[in-house]
Amino acid sequence: MSSFAIGLILLALISGDALIISGENLAHIDTETGTVTPSVGTLHTYPNDLIIHDGFAFVVNSGVDAGTLQRFELGTWTLTELGIGSGWNCWASLPLTNGNLAVSAALNNSISIVNPTTMAIVSSIEGVGPNPEWMDTENNLLYTACGGWGTGQSVVVANINTGEAIDTLTAAVNCQSVICDGNGKLFTTCSGTYGSDEGSVVVIDLSTGDITAELIVGGFPAFSVAANGILYVSDPWGAGVYSIDMNTLQILHDSSNPFCTGGNGMAVDESGYLWVSDGMSGEVRVYNTTETLVHTYSVTSPAAIAVSGSWLGIEDGTVETGISISVSPNPAVNAITVSGATPGASVRVFDITGRVAASSVAGDNGTSTMDITNLTTGLYTVNSGTSNTRFAVTGR
User: Fold this and answer.
1) Which residue from 36, 24, 75, 25 is spatially nearest to 296, judged by alpha carbons?
2) Is residue 361 within 8 Å of 347, Cβ to Cβ?
3) Is the CB of residue 100 less than 8 Å from the CB of residue 117?
4) pLDDT tens digits for 248-295?
5) Are 151 and 137 in contact (CB under 8 A)?
């Protein structure tokens, strides 16, 4: 069992906001006080993407025509809405160099250009598909991942100034997000065929359009962010968050050895701290530039996250070391024993949908034996405190 050292953690926070899609609510964390507000606004059906830009939070709702794009003023939470298309299934938004926002329309194979001040559509980029999802920009070019929901492998390039699609790059099956590294490389996260466990990150040389590397991370990764020279890709319904050194192209964490669980949402603040939403455990975790967990917030069903400002942890004295739980046997058939938990702490088992499938309390020795005869064959996550681990239930 891990021990806890006695000490005092003093939190120094630069004023800012962390916003999280929490079901159909917009949750807020004040990074100055640490206060979590479960809802500062109500969202529409299938809120999918969230950004903070120029004093506003923008939410893209995939399941509605009216209120597709919601704009909340930070602090007052005044709401303005814009409808985009009819059944277009808009996916993500991105600030552009000309001050507008790009909003991808997955079922219309287009990008809507929105004036964020007037909340009006000013133009459209056509022929972006199949099924455009997340985007990134570099040198007045817009790169959009178009994975065709399992059937495509395209990255469509558009000229922001002319509003025209000008090229199509080839990545791998089901590319869903892209990150420009600022040095002429495009990192494209590709999920692979559904359920195939063949997720990869394809590196493309933007000067030639050629693939220079395909890094197999496994699982079914989708969203990606970059922090401190590391690419983090999320597989929230699989092992969690994977990572790659963007300079050496070394895979640091893959599906067999994830950086952490969760990844329903990720963001990087102004100090390079990584924020990760974990929908199964109901947590938003903050990691510093050395990838050390520095804080955990409780948020119901956290998904996409956006952060302005910074969270900085200044340590005074000895810091709590944290816990690390384990499960045996793994795979299991009828029962599991969870070890390494804090005595008296809650121990919960989540299925792949995030539902609590079993729960107990750790005994005085930090262990808990749980009956799993009612669980179906598959993968499960065990959570206690800030620690998570996975196990498999095999057929009986």
Assistant:
1) 36
2) yes
3) no
4) 999 999 999 999 999 999 999 988 999 999 999 999 999 988 899 988
5) no
In sequence order, the β-bridge partners of residue 27 are 20
- What integer is the mean pLDDT of 233-239? 91
**CA distances (Å), 176 to each of 116, 151, 224, 229, in order?**
24, 12, 9, 20
The predicted-structure confidence for 5-53, as pLDDT tens digits, reads as follows: 222 222 333 357 899 999 999 999 987 777 899 999 999 999 999 999 9
Q: What angle do CA 198, 203, 204 make, to 5 degrees?
A: 130
d(C-alpha 286, C-alpha 226), whole Å: 15
- Above pLDDT 90, what percent of the chain? 70
Query: 8-316, which class in CATH?
Result: mainly beta
DSSP secondary structure of 197-225: ---EEEEEETTTTEEEEEEE--S----EE
Predicted local confidence at residue 350, as pLDDT:
72
State the span(s) of the chain assigned CATH 2.60.40.10. 326-393
**What pLDDT score was predicted for residue 355?**
63
Using alpha carbons only, what angle is made at residue 63 by residues 175 and 82, rounded to the nearest 5 degrees?
Answer: 100
Q: Which of 300, 226, 278, 266 has its CA nearest to residue 18?
A: 266
* Whether 350 contacts 380, CB under 8 Å: yes
Closest C-alpha among 20, 27, 12 to residue 294? 12
Beta-carbon contacts of residue 129 (< 8 Å; ≥ 6 apart): 109, 110, 146, 148, 152, 154, 156
Q: What's at 133, amino acid-wise?
A: E
- Per DSSP, 376 falls in state P
**Polymer length of the chain:** 396
Segment 160-189 shows an average pLDDT of 96
| Fold topology of 326-393 | Immunoglobulin-like (2.60.40)
Which pLDDT does position 37 carry in this prediction?
Answer: 94
Q: Closest by alpha carbon to 188, among 134, 240, 139?
A: 134
CB within 8 A of 74, min separation 6: which ones?
Answer: 17, 52, 55, 56, 57, 308
The DSSP 8-state label assigned to residue 331 in this structure reads S
- Cα 276 to Cα 53, 123, 328: the distances in Å are 19, 34, 27
Which segments of the chain belong to CATH 2.130.10.10?
8-316
Cβ–Cβ < 8 Å for 236, 263? yes
